[in-house]
Amino acid sequence: MADQKITDLAELTAPAAADLLPIVDDSEATAANKNKKIQYSVFLRNLPNGTVGAPALAWTSDAGVTGLYRTAANETAFTNNSTFIGKFTTTGFQLGTGTAAAQLHLFSTDTTDQVIIENSDAGLDTAPDVVLYRNSASPAADDNLGNLVFRGEDSGGNAHDYAQILASINSPTDGAEVGTLDLMTASSGVPTSRIRLDGVNVGIHEASPNFPLHITSTIASTALNVEASVDDTASAADITLLHLRGDTTAGQDDDLLSTVYYRGHNDAGTPEQIDYAAVEGSIADASDGTEDGRLRFKVQTAGTITTQLEINANTIGFFGATAAAQSSHVADITTTATTGTLPTADGSVTIADAASPTNAELLEYCVELEAKVEALLAFASAHGLMASS
Q1: Which of 31, 140, 296, 359 supports an S-S bond with 280, CB 3.0-4.6 Å?
Q2: Strands 104-106 and 93-95
């Protein structure tokens, strides 16, 4: 075959593994032995190791200092401008300098953002999304789905899990699935759930919350503290118990709004939970513009929760009696002596002969009695049991 220029040769656009390339073997000393052939597949499998500053596979536009190289057995590394970026190992993929301990392991000494997921979609769909998918062929209750761990060192230089966010399956029933999410922190070295979101209920220090908010405490002091630091004379740290008959249904007279219960065990062989006391709020009159409210204070009385004090808009009832309006004011007696001097009450009366008391003794008794009655009236007035005027 006549000699041809390389540029005149037909182009091979789909090389096969067994295709041959001419190559000059620099290890041969004799010129006649230098010209050899090499298979295309062998050529691609025999790159030099390279280094961080001279990668084995590089780009001339970056002066040959950006590309791929081999750092150790079964490792492929990336270098940018002679700077190590990351590598694939048999353990996984790592970014930064270190020893990979997971399928994806990021190393950094920087204090800025280490992972950013950015999405520029302007629609209503959720984005960016991060999905932890436990694709189990046999999902079951209590299966853990994923765990976000916050790990640090302790004073002994040991790695320790200080906090976690753990998701699990409560019920895998098709169409009635229930999930659980635990917010966990370490105490005395042991990570434990502090807040559990279980289906529709939330538990604080409670593994099986039975209510929308269920707080369980093992301490003898404050379990719930609502604090406000506003510098104002207005009310703050308020707690509102709001009971509505739906969003638009009107309230009605005698609607029970909310009750605060004081519940504990009795001394039965199997202790029972008993409501020993309660404070109950209700609607006395729902009329628009003239609304009246009612409070009932209840305690256990011989095994029955009983109202002992009822406060209505303008009435009060004690010991279960029907609430009555405030008594009108009772004025003191005005006593005037035309002649002589009335005795002064001093808290005691002496009657020489009870069978035939003298007028003076009876008058002294009446003055003492009047003083006691007026003291009782003053007390009733001072405490709102009777009008003051």
Answers
A1: 296
A2: parallel
Residues facing residue 300 across a β-bridge: 305
130-184 pLDDT tens trace: 999 999 999 999 999 999 999 999 999 999 999 999 999 999 999 999 999 999 9
CA distances from residue 87 to 107, 199, 323 in whole angstroms, order as listed: 12, 42, 82
Burial class (CB in 10 A: 0-12, 13-18, 19+), 69: buried
Sequence-distant (6+) residues with CB within 8 A of 59 are 66, 67
106/108 Cα distance (integer angstroms): 7
Query: pLDDT tens-digit profile of 342-357?
Result: 999 999 999 999 999 9
- Are 72 and 84 within 8 A, CB to CB? no
**Position of tokens 């707690």?**
239
As given in the structure block, the two tokens for residue 152 are 């640090």
Q: Tokens 């041809």 sit at which residue?
A: 4
Placement of tokens 């409501």 in the chain: 275
Strands of 159-171's sheet, edge to edge? 144-153, 159-171, 178-187, 190-198, 201-204, 213-215
Burial of 377 (0-12, 13-18, 19+ CB in 10 A): middle
Tokens representing 268?
């039965």
| Amino acid identity at 59 | W
Strands (E) across 15-129 are located at: 20-24, 35-39, 57-58, 67-69, 76-80, 83-88, 93-95, 104-106
What is the phi/psi pair of residue 146, to 5°? 180, 155
